[in-house]
Each structure stands twice: as structure tokens, then as C-alpha cells.
Amino acid sequence: xEYKGYKIVQEGNKILVEGxxxxxxxxxxxxxxxxxxxxxxxxxxxxxxxxxxxNVSFCNENLQIYNSNVEDFINIWCDYFDLGxxxxxxxxxxxxxxVMKKAVEFGWGIRILKQDLWETLISFIISANNRIPRIMKSxxxxxxxxxxxxxxxxxxxxxxxxxxxxxxxxxxxxxxxxAGFRCKYVHSTSNMVSGGNINLGNIKNMDTDDAREYxxxxxxxxxxxxxxxxxxxxxxxxxxxxxxWVKRVMEEIYFKEKTSLKNIQEMAKAKFSHLSGFAQQYLxxxxxxxxxxx
Length: 294
Hints:
By secondary structure, this protein is an alpha+beta fold. It has helices spanning 25-29, 70-80, 87-94, 98-106, 117-126, 132-146, 163-167, 171-174, 182-194, 208-215, 223-232, 244-255, 261-272, 276-289, and strands at 2-3, 6-11, 14-18, 37-39, 45-49, 52-59, 62-66, 149-152, 155-158. It has 3 domains: 2-84, TATA-Binding Protein (2-Layer Sandwich), CATH 3.30.310.260; 117-232, Hypothetical protein, domain 2 (Endonuclease III, domain 1), CATH 1.10.340; 244-289, Endonuclease Iii, domain 2 (Orthogonal Bundle).
């Protein structure tokens, strides 16, 4: 069958999606936007998302999704992998200088995932002043502690828990996930969301500035974490997440001197407009992998 221009073939417990351009698994899963995708020996990735566990591989514009079916592709994975977006067009619109040209060529296969907003929120609270391997372990441990068991073949995995499951725990038990001082933020945020003090469902209907301010009412959420949550959940694409490291990179690449966070945000908005989030991701991946600003 065909869906959104892609040919989809079901073969037993896997599907093959043909004709996907501008997609690379390494670029997408290792650009800092997600924490539950693990690279396998054969170059494929196994991940847990949206209450499912799948293995994905990609070759010659063909995406294979194991442990899935056509219905899940239409209802979950097409949107999750942002396959309805024309990244060729996005890249044409943001390549407006030599730096962006190099960044886009380097990370040509990045797609910004549309992850679950709640899971993305907790993941990026844990990410503050933290390293990716440790973030991955902490997020996975939270899923093991409180999440529902799911399976691929004979292997057991865990879906990410709802806010109520974490809120009903204690900070002492949560500390098993080894997120350090962030555990109290995770617990407090879970309480606020499960108790209805914050309704994450409202965010998609807010403008970007209001959505950022709303998220920042939560413990452990500053401007950078809020922007990451908005971008990597697919909620807002006009944000430009800027931490100390990104600030240093922007100063070296564009400003050639130290400048303020406000100046960086204003420059990104003027230069990239509604595509700022895409531009940030290409720049971030390019700079990090090439140790620019390190």
C-alpha cells in the first residue's frame, strides 16, 4: 500500500517503507535529541517510544521497522520520524551562509523526532549539566522502575511511565535512577503534572513564548530545557535551544566575540525564523562532532 507517498510492505513482523529521503539513523539518533535508542552491532537501532519497542534499519532510502505493522506506521511511526516533512525544502531555506552549508552537508540525515511530550520533559530535566550516557541510563532506569513491560521477541523492555507512577513513588526510591539532584525536580514535576497543576495538553495551543513560560513553572525547567522539550516533542519548531556550550559555538562561528543569550536568540530568530529549531540541530550536531568551540 501507499501512505503519504511512501510504499509500505508488510513482511511478517516487520514493515519496509520505501522512498525515504533526507534520513540517516546515526544523524537522527545521535544528535542529542533522544535517549532511548541503542545502536546494535549491525548498525540498526533498537528503541522504546510511544509504548512500543522496535528495531529500525535504513538502507538505500528504505526504512525497515521490525516488531511493527502497517497500522502502527500510519498511526505512530510516520509522525514520530517526521516523515511527512520535506527536509530538502527546509535545508534550502536555512542554508543562507557558508557555515550553515557545511552544517547541513555534515548532518544531512537529521530528522527532528516528534517524541512524547511528557517523556521528553523528564528526559531533559535529567539532562541538565549531565552527559548523554548517564542521561540514557537514568531515563532507562526510571522506565524499569515504574514503566509497563513490553516485549520484542523474547526480550523485555519498559515503556516510559506516566506522571502518576512517578509521583506515587518517593524521592528516595527515585534516587535509584542516579539522576542526582535532578531527582527532586523529576518527582516535583511528576506531582504537578499528575495533580493537574500543569496541563501539558494545553501547550500545543499556545504561542511559543507562552509555551516556554508555562513549562518554566515546573521545577528544573529553565529556558534551555523548555526549548528542548518544545523542539524535540515536535510541539514548536521556531525555538533555538541555547546552553553554555551552544552559546560558545555561536560566539565562535557567528559573533567572533562573547555575546549575550538574548543576542543569540534574536539573531537566530532573524536569520532562521520559523525554522530556527532545524537550524539549531544542524549547527549543534556539526559543531559538537567537529569539536568547534570545545
